[in-house]
Design a protein that fits this description.
Blueprint (H helix, E strand, L loop, with lengths): L1 H31 L12 H11 L2 H16 L12 H5 L3 H25 L12 H6 L2 H38 L3 H8 L4 H21 L2
Membrane topology: Multi-pass membrane protein
Protein name: Biotin transporter
Family: Belongs to the BioY family.
């Protein structure tokens, strides 16, 4: 019995490490998809990080973003534009990167509390319906089910994004020597609608992955 428990524990640790490594790779690749939009580039990082927060456990999500930032800090080109190094973290847009860590920690803690206490958004007590049962529901009931299943995850994505925005604005103000209004209009406002769409897309994709990876 003890041997079985040991093997199960080792298997779970291996699975967890694999998930963290895969999440780091996805975040890095998403950062390379860059569209110049003024001084702040448009990337898919918000999508990738939100996906990691929703689909992974709190410890795995935090380990993923911490590992990603550590790789970038030592010079591995995992940041936008295939850049790396402390200089990127200390630059005008670096606040968004270290804000990821704070945002992920807050969002993961929020999800842990809600899933544990309320049993929703992927929690153990969350209602699980088959595709046929969902299809049989009225449009109104399906809308309510969507809000119940995805609403909490979307709120978590918003918490992560808001904290990343705040950290990014603060550093952009300090390094660029601009006021809050200029920093907001330059570094945040152009991305808000698109980033919200990324959050919704990440939550939908995460739900599909959760349905496959038990």
């Amino acid at each position: 019995m003890e041997t079985v428990r040991t093997k199960t524990s080792a298997s779970a640790r291996t699975r967890s490490v694999a998930f963290v490594g895969l999440a780091i790779a996805i975040i890095a690749v998403s950062a390379w998809v860059t569209v110049p939009l003024g001084p702040i580039p448009f990337t898919l990082q918000m999508f990738a990080v939100t996906f990691a927060v929703v689909v992974l456990s709190p410890k795995e999500a935090i380990a993923s973003i911490a590992g990603y930032l550590l790789l970038g800090a030592v010079g591995v080109p995992v940041f936008s534009g295939m850049r790396g190094g402390i200089g990127v973290l200390a630059g005008p847009t670096g606040g968004f990167l270290w804000g990821y860590l704070l945002g992920v920690a807050a969002a993961a803690l929020f999800l842990y509390v809600v899933r544990t206490k309320l049993g929703v958004a992927g929690g153990k007590g969350a209602p699980k319906l088959t595709r046929a049962e969902v299809a049989a529901l009225s449009p109104g009931r399906r809308a309510v089910l969507f809000v119940r299943n995805f609403g909490v995850d979307i709120v978590a994505g918003i918490i992560f994004t808001a904290i990343a925005y705040a950290c990014g604005c603060i550093q952009y103000m300090a390094v660029g020597q601009v006021d809050l209004a200029t920093a907001f209009l330059t570094a945040v406002a152009p991305f808000m609608v698109v980033d919200f769409c990324k959050i919704v897309a990440a939550v939908v994709c995460a739900d599909a992955v959760r349905a496959v990876v038990k």
